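Re-run requested by the PI after the first attempt was lost when the workstation crashed. Everything re-entered from the original request form. Ligand of interest: FE2/S2 (inorganic) cluster.
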Amino acid sequence: MYSAHVMDHFQNPRNAGDLPGANAVGSAGNPSCGDVLRLYLKIENGRVAQASFKTFGCGAAIATSSILTEMVKGKTVEELRAVTNAQVVEALGGLPPFKAHCSVLAEDALRSALADYSSGNGAG
Ligand code: FES
């Protein structure tokens, strides 16, 4: 059902956990299943220097969280605004159609983190 790439990111998630010093923190939840993604970004000199996540959710949500933290590294704030859940799914080599909604958490959490960064709050 899942691609090898999805299974790899599910079983060996990259950048899981807190990120001390994060200055852009966003959360997103899926009301239909109750899953939650919290995204931490450390933006330095206008680019993402570090990213991490904490996700309470299904395997697809964990895999999309993991690959999102890899995709955003090095991106400028402007480039982050252009990231979509479709790009996240594509980077994973696809998701089964009935799990595509899980990737929306990634896009929503990224938008939330960008709003946090713009507000200068940095604490989510
Ligand atoms: Fe909830 Fe996947 S089933 S995000």
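Saved to the shared folder this time. The pocket of FE2/S2 (inorganic) cluster is lined by residues 30, 33, 35, 57-58, 60-61, 102, 105 (CB under 6 Å).
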